[in-house]
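Troubleshooting: if your tokenizer reports a length mismatch, compare your output against this known-good record of 133 residues.
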Amino acid sequence: MAMGKRAGAVRVAALCAMAWVLQDAFSMTVSFGKHRGKTMQELVEEDKENCNPAFKAAAEYLLDQDDIDVEELEQVINFGKYKGQGFKQVMDEDPDYGQWVVGAAEESGNPNFRAFAEFAGEYLEKAEAQASA
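Known-good structure output:
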């Protein structure tokens, strides 16, 4: 059964989020047990067959990258009508929604809401600067 477009986008976003978290984890060194002194990356490379499938997919993605710029990884909205979609995708498709989020951010306790508001504000400023140039 083919994966739907939205499901595929959610899967990619989930892998990107995992890669973002794992990027720092890969450099961590184990400080106990038989793997003491090895990095998480070394452990994944040594035992790929026994890794959790989700961890393995994210690890393989990371290992295939020469240098990942964490800032370029797509952040995903975890609230509202665009839940599961990337920040940039939402702003490209519905900048008015982004403008609304910017105005409502102070009242929200959701860190993802605030992160999207910050992204949306920067996105709108860039769009305005380009339009006036």
